[in-house]
Amino acid sequence: MSHIPIRTCVACRTKRPATEMLRVRKWEGSISTEAPGGRGAWLCPNEECIEQAFRKRLLVRALRLESMPPDWEQCMARLLQEAYERHAESGTEEDR
Ligand SMILES: [Zn+2]
Fold first, then answer.
1. CATH code: domain of residue 73
2. pLDDT tens digits for 25-59?
3. Residue 1 domain-assigned?
4. How far is the CA of 86 from the centre of ligand 1 (A)?
5. Distances (CA, A) of 16 to 6, 8, 42, 68, 83
6. Ligand 1 centroid to 45 CA: how many Å?
7. CA distance 74 to 7
8. Measured in angstroms, how far is the CA atom of residue 14 from the centroid of ligand 1?
9. How many whole angstroms from 28 Cα to the centroid of ligand 1?
10. Distance in Å, CA 66 to ligand 1 centroid
11. How many domains does the chain have?
């Protein structure tokens, strides 16, 4: 098994393997989970952490965004959706 880096959630500060977390990157004045590079922040794939990161604007600070992305709410919705899908995937893995 290869070494898995440990990352810290920007919302709850919990340390987890990077593979279990959602990575958010600064991308063209907004944020993206699919950006090829750039400054990144990590979040637990759960509703609490994602909502906190957006509502308290923790991601703005973590990613050093110059301003609030205009699609902030959509970004949050997209991340919540990704977290939801992540849970659906890990659920099937546990069943094996
Ligand atoms: Zn967290």
1. 3.30.1230.10
2. 999 889 999 888 888 999 999 999 999 999 999 99
3. no
4. 15
5. 5, 7, 10, 27, 15
6. 7
7. 25
8. 6
9. 25
10. 24
11. 1
- What pLDDT sits at residue 71? 94
Ligand 1 center to 96 CA (angstroms): 26
> Has residue 67 been placed in a domain?
yes
How many CB atoms are located within 10 Å of the residue 40 CB? 16
- CB distance 38 to 30 below 8 Å: no
Check if the beta carbon of residue 43 is closer than 8 Å to that of residue 21.
Answer: yes
H helix or E strand, kind and range, residue 83:
helix 72-95
Quickly count: other Cβ atoms within 10 Å of residue 54's Cβ.
21
Structural domain for 41, as ranges: 6-95
